[in-house]
Amino acid sequence: MNKEEELLQKFKEVHPKLIDDILGCPELKEVSIVREWYRKVFEYNTAGGKLNRGLLVVQCYLSMVEKCQINDENTHLACVLGWCLEMLQSWLLVIDDLMDNSSTRREPISP
Known about the structure:
Shape: globular
Radius of gyration: 16 Å
Number of helices: 5
Strand content: under 5%
Structural class: mainly alpha
Order of helices and strands: HHHHH
Helix content: over 70%
Number of strands: 0
């Protein structure tokens, strides 16, 4: 596995944990149906793309920081920031779809 594939794998591994952290807030623990709906929305809207923007955040971090500052914790935080950008992009796409009256995102409607 080359370095780009390793970085992509590491980036993707953060996604489920980040969703669990977001959905673990006390307000959502009492409302399981809402929590599961949010999980579906996050997974549908953030996991299917190319992830270029989020990966770029991590790659910028790795290229701009001194080698002595690169560790698992800081790389994880860069991945979290990258996923925040992916979530923002997904939100912008959903808003665009609403404005355009689009009925799907990334996947066609099943017949």
